[in-house]
Amino acid sequence: MFTVLIRTAILYFLVIISMRLMGKKQIGELQPFELAITIMISELASFPMQDTRIPIIHGVIAIITLLLIQTILSVFELKSEKIRLLLNGKPSILINNGKIDIKELRRQQFNINDLMEELRLQGYFNLDDIHFAILETSGQLSIIPKTNLAPATKGDLKVPFKQDTIPVTLILDGSINHDNLKILNKDENWLNEKLKRFNIDSPKEVFIALIDSQGSFYYQKKV
């Protein structure tokens, strides 16, 4: 009995340390590969707890191996957009410019009742109030409402407004996203000119640069 208690305590603290090292995310916000590793770690910890014939070192080595894999993949994700897309996929637009994308709903196996429930949970009860609804890679639904119907009620106040749109990432950790530049009908020369206005000589100096929901250029340099 004492041996079981010791083994359980060791594995418990090892799992807690592993979860802390993986970062601060709720279960619903984990990416697919992170969720898979989390489930596998819990399973690997349970086997040595239940069966004292299994050497505890086997569970420890397996858990540490998964932690190393998760850490390495996270670093690769940060450095490469292609690897990030391969591991996590990309967000899906379920409502585009106020219209439901039926094909995308079917592709994501997301029925209309699920969509309406998610909208209600975020405080939106009418489809006509939604400009964009984006299914993130974590499974969360992001909502961009029609600006004139947003809680600020700019439409009621007759205040001039500009419709929010989807932010477009241009640079991430020094790497230019050429696909997003094409979406904006811009090229690398345009981007370099933008950076020069802020005394930035190279995209390699930039951690993130994007066009925000209001069409403004936002950037942050590497530390």
TrEMBL record:
Keywords: Cell membrane, Membrane, Transmembrane, Transmembrane helix. It is found in: Cell membrane. It is a multi-pass membrane protein. Residues 79-210 form the YetF C-terminal domain. InterPro entries: DUF421, UPF0702_alpha/beta_dom_sf. Belongs to the UPF0702 family. This is YetF C-terminal domain-containing protein. It comes from Clostridium scatologenes.
